[in-house]
Each structure stands twice: as structure tokens, then as C-alpha cells.
Write a structure and sequence with these properties.
heterodimer; A: 233 residues; mainly alpha; two-stranded antiparallel ribbon; 13 helices; 4 strands; 52% helix; globular; B: 46 residues
Chain lengths: 233, 46
């Protein structure tokens, strides 16, 4: 076997390495693919590859929406989507494919919230990672909920994948709606505006129509059913 | 927010009810960083 780039040694060490950063410039989608391979194959990006991905990341904006969509959907199908999204964010890629998340990073929220909006949203995705595989165990509607989440919405997109995307975007308009009124932080109409922002993301990514229909409604409940006494935000 | 009001909210979502229930669950858990199923069992109420 001819192995001029040392691929066998890398595989043995569970390393993911680009032998030349130009392969990322040739096709910036490979930056996303690298993160997915890391998440699915148990590999680890080498530091030089991580730096190359970070440098090539902005060029992702030139890649077709359909190709970006397919990689993002593949990550939304992982059991550890939140971890993959955090890796994307650490490499500067998440804000390129979803620029809407950038203002969420610094936006604070009042108690009982403990986290800024982006951190909160990534934790919501992590919650979906935990919740979805365990739905069948929930009585009495677990089987129905599991079947509902497994439903195909077109283009081999499952409802559960879109729920995770909705979890990431459910507070997307909080930064633009944040106001301090009488000393209280308020987010008036963030649910309505957020639904419009999420719909725009779905259209930009060319998600199937039914998937966009699910995504357009990331309206948080006025008070979550399992958090009695929680105030309307 | 009364239980009846919560019921009406989710009932009126119609086809979106199940999605919004699950989204609300992960949202509420992420407020404090708990796991969604640690909030309360879904079948706690009759």
C-alpha cells in the first residue's frame, strides 16, 4: 500500500488530519465534514487541522445552501448534536452557516435563566439529545411521541432533526427584542419575530416545506408545563 | 398561569402541540441546566 500522507498512522492514532490546507479551500464544505467525521468516527482533529478549518471557515458562505443543509441535517441526526454544534462553534463555523446565532452569544437573560441566550439554546439542544432517544419510555404517550418525532417530513428529514434545530433557534430573536422596562428585562414579541427568523433560516437552507412548517413555530409556551410558577418571558 | 390556561394553550396549538410540548420541555430544562426528564415525569398529572 502506498501511503504518502501517513493516513494509516493517523487512523491508528484516531487522528483526523488534512495533509494540505488547500483541500479545505478547494471545497470549504470539508470543514463541516471534518467536524461530522470527528463526531461519528471517534476521531480527533489535529491542532493544525483545526487551525486550517478555522481559517477556511468563512469560505463556507460560498458553498451552496443545499450542501450546507445536508451536512447540518446529518449533525442534527446525531445522538450528540449539541456536542457537534459546540465543536462547530469553537471552530468558528456555526456562525457562518447560521449567522443568526451570533447576537445570541452575548445576550443576557434575567432569572431564573442562568445562561446567555446561545448557551441556553445549546443546552436546549442537549436536552433534545437526551429526550428524543428516551421518548418510548414515557407513559402513556411515549410510543406516539417517538413515532411523531421519527416522522419523515420530506427529503429524508425527520421531525426530530427539526426539533433540534428549533431548539437552537427558539430564542433567536431575543437579542433584537431585548428591552429594559421599569428595571426589568423584557423580550416583547420575541416568539412571533423568532418564528419569522426561523422560517427565513428554513427557506435559506432550502429545507423541505413540511420541515419549514415545523421550524416556523418555535414559539415557547407562555409557561412551561413542568416549571410551575415560571413567568412569562 | 393556571393548569387550565396551560391546557388551553397546548390544546389550541392543534397539530403543533406535540412539537411545542417537547420544545417547552427542553427549553425549561435549559433555563437552569437540568436534564429534561428531571423536571417532572410526564405522566405525573392524571
Amino acid at each position: 500500500m502506498i501511503d504518502p500522507t501517513g493516513g494509516l498512522a493517523d487512523l491508528g492514532a484516531r487522528r483526523l488530519r488534512v495533509p494540505d490546507a488547500r483541500v479545505l479551500a478547494d471545497d470549504p464544505l470539508r470543514t463541516l465534514r471534518g467536524v461530522r467525521f470527528e463526531a461519528t468516527l471517534g476521531l480527533r482533529l489535529t491542532p493544525s487541522t483545526a487551525r486550517a478549518i478555522r481559517a477556511a471557515g468563512p469560505a463556507l458562505a460560498t458553498v451552496s445552501a443545499e450542501r450546507v443543509r445536508d451536512e447540518l441535517l446529518a449533525m442534527l441526526a446525531l445522538p450528540g448534536t449539541a456536542r457537534a454544534l459546540r465543536r462547530l462553534d469553537a471552530l468558528g463555523l456555526l456562525g457562518v452557516i447560521l449567522p443568526e446565532i451570533e447576537p445570541m452569544r452575548a445576550t443576557t437573560q434575567p432569572a431564573p435563566h442562568r445562561f446567555r441566550v446561545l448557551e441556553h439554546s445549546l443546552r436546549a439542544v442537549a436536552g433534545a439529545d437526551v429526550l428524543l432517544p428516551g421518548l418510548r419510555g414515557l407513559r402513556p404517550f411515549g410510543e406516539e411521541l417517538a413515532a411523531h418525532m421519527a416522522e419523515e417530513l420530506g427529503g429524508d428529514v425527520r421531525r426530530g432533526q427539526i426539533l433540534k434545530l428549533a431548539a437552537l433557534l427558539h430564542d433567536v430573536s431575543k437579542p433584537e427584542t431585548r428591552r429594559v422596562v421599569d428595571g426589568r428585562v423584557r423580550f416583547f414579541e420575541h416568539d412571533v419575530i423568532g418564528a419569522a427568523r426561523a422560517r427565513a433560516v428554513g427557506e435559506r437552507l432550502k429545507l423541505p416545506a413540511r420541515a419549514r412548517g415545523v421550524l416556523r413555530a418555535p414559539r415557547p409556551a407562555p409557561s412551561a408545563p413542568h416549571a410551575p410558577g415560571r413567568r412569562r418571558r | 398561569m393556571t393548569r387550565a390556561a396551560r391546557y388551553r394553550f397546548y390544546r389550541d396549538l392543534r397539530e403543533d402541540t406535540r412539537d411545542l410540548l417537547l420544545l417547552s420541555l427542553v427549553d425549561a430544562a435549559a433555563v437552569r441546566g437540568t436534564r429534561p426528564l428531571d423536571l417532572a415525569p410526564l405522566d405525573a398529572d392524571p
